[in-house]
Structure prediction request, 301 residues.
Amino acid sequence: MFGLYGLSLKVVAYPALLCLFLGLVLLALDFWHYRSRHRQRQALREDIELNLDRLPLPETLAEAELGEMLQALGALRSAQISASRAQEQESLDYYAAWVHQIKTPIAAMGMLLQGEDSEEHRALQGELFRIEQYVEMVLSYLRLRGEGTDFVFREVALDGVIRQAVRKFAPQFVRKRIRLRYEETQERVLTDEKWLHFILEQLLSNAIKYTPSGEIAITVQDKVLTVADSGIGIAPEDLPRIFERGFTGYNGHADKKATGLGLYLCQQAARRLGIAITVESVVGQGSAFHLDLHTEQLEVE
Prediction:
């Protein structure tokens, strides 16, 4: 058009450069604004549950509608979480009451079986002991699943925890004629006594279950507690999965009563206590479970 009318292009050169400069400035400002809002959204995304009420102010109708949908979804999710927690707490309360109620007939049956010393009664006492262990396992499973914990950390004598667990399984050692090798130690560890006792109970229960004859050794060296047995051992292909929930492996298929929960609960409790649990095993020679009880130097109140 400028050529048709014989006009010089220099007439629009300066306005064009000025518009280009202003356009670049506005583009830079818009990019900076977009980048700052992008970073703000990224920070909210990392902790969206806590910062849902701090969404950036909408600048368009679409952003306002998206913000309202997010608020509605957040309110719905909060209601679902509250309902789930209430249901889980109700389930925990129910099973806790059930455990305490079932202990009464178990104790009564135990007293009745103690009235006569016979092979049949000793076998029944062994089965009743297993029932009591499974009842305790149910309550421990529910407690570990809950968000709340009842852990109380304090410095305890390791010998006391070990003797308490050994005393509980003493009839099983006698009935299966399994030797126990244990030397007292003067170690003291910072842990929760009840849950450490639970882990040790589960390890002893498995050791007795899968040791037809021989011995079980409990040793402590440099705050590493080891429970070793001379039982049937664990297949190499099962070792990486023995702490999975419900996994029974080759031994579990041989023992139809295995639940696959004992070692899973051990690992869950050990994680809560900050304890590393490892295992070594050779088929036909036995297994050794190690609990690393080392802790940081903390001041105990």
Remarks:
- The CA atoms of residues 106 and 128 lie 7 Å apart.
- The longest helix spans residues 61-113.
- The two ends are 90 Å apart (CA to CA).
- The chain is about 60% helix and 15% strand.
